[in-house]
Amino acid sequence: MRLIFIFLFLIPALVFAQSPIEQATQKELWKDPHWQALLHYKKGESTIDSKAFFNATMGKTDPKAELIATLKAFAQPAEKEHIEKIQIKADITQDFQYQHAQCAFPARYAWLKSKLDLSSLPKQKCSAYQKWLKKVQPHQATLVFASAYLNQPSSLFGHTFLRFDRKSKNEDLLSYISNFGAITPPNPNGFAYAYNGLTGGYPGVFSFQPYYEKVKTYGAIENRDLWEYPLNLTQKELDTLVAHVWELGYQYVDYYFFTDNCSYLLMEVLDAVRPQMKLADKFPRQTIPLDTVRVALAEKGLVGTPDFRASMQTKILSHWKDLSTKEKNAVHEFRRDGNLSTDLTEKETARVAEVAYDAMQYDLAKGKISVDVMRPRAMALLRARNKVAETNELFPPIKTPLQPDVAHQSARVTLSGGVRDDHEILSLSLRPAYHTIDDLDDGYVFGAGLNFFYGDVHYDLETDDFYLNQFDLVSITSLSPWQATFRPTSWKLGVRLDPRPTDWDRQMGSGYGAVGISFKLAERFLIHTLAEGQISYADHTLSENPMIGAGGSIGFVWAFMPRWKILGETKQIYFSEQKENDYWDSTASLLYYPSTNWALSIDYRHFQIENASFDEIKTGFKRYF
After folding, report:
1. Are residues 413 and 482 in the same domain?
2. pTM higher than the cut 0.85
3. What sign for the dihedral angle of Cα 326, 328, 329, 330?
């Protein structure tokens, strides 16, 4: 009787049991924001371009088809895992690891398992994924921001990536990072790099590597400070993040320098953990890494208190300031001939040894010294340093600079008015990104600037005319001063469109560059002198050939009070074939910043060529947003 009762009880369950696909269809799970976030759908299409990321032929644009195809793939029998190379772009290959769908997409599997009854599906072992988890040992996730590096185009705005920390706080350098970046052919030329970076010609992929390798590259070679922002995630959210990063490990995205870049993809990854945040939706046009950090910080409860990791250069400069003149001379002497001065106390010798050792490691990373020269010198320095106990602090702690996320916003609009000769003018300018040397430097590199798509329009009240006063496609300034043991080159580079001073209706396009040296006269007082070159072309009425000119400039930047700055520059350019176009251009600006995202300015300019000149003075205000 009992058996009959049990049999009768099971009949409805057997009759009405639904397959996973039927359950998903009934619940319309493809409409769920979490499913769409895991597939990176934006406006009906996935950001991911790799076909291997989708189980359905139309999976990139059809979330329902992808959901059904994924459930079917989860039910397939296991096959042997293997890695193969696939061609994804001309001259670019990428490793692809074949795995069962449950193993290739563990975040999808875990989410669907929380929504559906998947007990009818055979559970796969996923040996490669389990081995990777054992190696990574994720206990905490950290968002890392690397400051800008002007000598590499892909790093002009800074960079963000994820670090998966182990349980022990002392093992940060052994942690693994997930880093998204473009794959380029060997030694691409500058034009090809710029063109492909702007048009999606390179694939962007996620890669994994130990954190210490990134610290070495950024901190010792590229002089980039690191800010480490811990993410406050639940265990379930951390598991989802780790699993989703694995899902992206063998996929690619068409890389766009301003949009689908390292930071935008990182926002989508975080959205896959908490879809309600919609972080990626906050970047419909351009994505600047520092702005993504700000957006993450604005999300309540997501980001904890950051840690600062100084670059090797920052560390050396900090310690250098604390050295006496005698100790500084001893460092220079050791760098010249490898001999430590005997005219030092034991503590002074240890201080000199520590700075000289760090400087030598920096030179080694830069390729300025060989390993054979470095080894005996390093041993001598370590012996001298160890005469003073490690517990004795030789230098004060490195001062933590202002966090970059509290610096001024990236875009800027300026409204000003003034006089050009006897004409009253109004000026409106817009800069989408990013920072120039006339901005407040808090959180940025003093003496460095990067301008993209800057436009300035003037309105002449006397003639009732509008004209384009200046358009910068790009302008980069790197005034790196000679200081301590560093002897960097200062430089400028840009492409500009501006009017001829004798005919405001005609525009002249110019490409320019400059190299030279800069010096610090005080903490916030920088002077520079540069050799300048320029190539310009207007139209056939000016010259049948482009004009090629050369000359020089001298200038200064002085932040003489916390919220005040004055800067000036004078430049002379000579054209050998068209002497009538030789010009002298002098500018000066006084700026006051009442708050981080507001500035008031007074600007003066004197411009002179053979047959024309003008003087211009303007006052205005700048708003950062």
Report:
1. yes
2. yes
3. positive
